[in-house]
Amino acid sequence: MEDKNLTQNESLEIISRMIKETRNNMERGGGNIFLLWGYICLIVSLAVYCLLSNTGDYRFNWLWFAIPVIGYPGMIYMLKKREKGAITIASRVISNIWIVLGIVAGLLSIYMFVDYKAYPIMFVMSLLINSGVAISGLVIRFRPIVVAGFLGILLSFGMLMVAGINQILIFALLAVIMLIIPGHILNNASRKVKAENNA
Amino acid sequence: MQVVKLKLKTMPKDNVNSFRELDPLLHSQLRLAVMSLLISLEEADFVYLREKTGSTAGNLSVQLDKLSQAKYIEVDKGYSGKKPRTVCRITDTGRKAFEEYLEALKTYIG
User: What's the pTM?
Assistant: First the structure.
């Protein structure tokens, strides 16, 4: 591209092409963070379920803390590794939403030490995470994530209908619906865009 | 201030007066491409802008300086780890100029 004057059609063509480039940038690599959290939640919840149902020892609930302990360093590593050439307004909004939700989730977990019967923690956490997923989907206008988020919100209420450790199985199912499936869909869409750009 | 009017010679005389002036700073291929990228982004670094516009580093650097001098963009020169990194952001002045450029462009198409 050179520094030359343009006709009106050339101007419009440049403007629309460059704006399209920034839209493509939005979805690149975004699915990996969904997959990271999704697989950690799935593995940890299944592990907790197996250990609790086999031993009945509720101290295995401490394993839930493996989710933030593995998840946050993993996410920071992935964000550092990710292409940092440009930050879209949407990605900044989404980051801020998840920072707030992360803090709220942390406070809700910590309050469990004060009064573990204060609220149904699995339900509240699921509702919180799924709301984040739905908002993220709406911000980037990516329908599979919006659908996953709202489906997750509805399924979260299932936690209130199921007693005891069976709630953990619903949480594992939610990890698949709200994080793993949308993560793979987002990465496929990103690969498709990349292939189209290279063609 | 230098202004650009497009295809004046080929247009009917009545239409010429309805054309708005196009900002000469934006009416150039590379500067318009940079502004079109930055308008939809919070910020972008030099490497990203070079890749997306397909320009040379030298030319891009000159055009960024021109946009920066007009206060259309902010340029921050810093480091990412040990590597130097130049980050560009559109300013309110630049955003307004870009919107006015689009409005002016409409009068030529419309």
Answer: 0.72
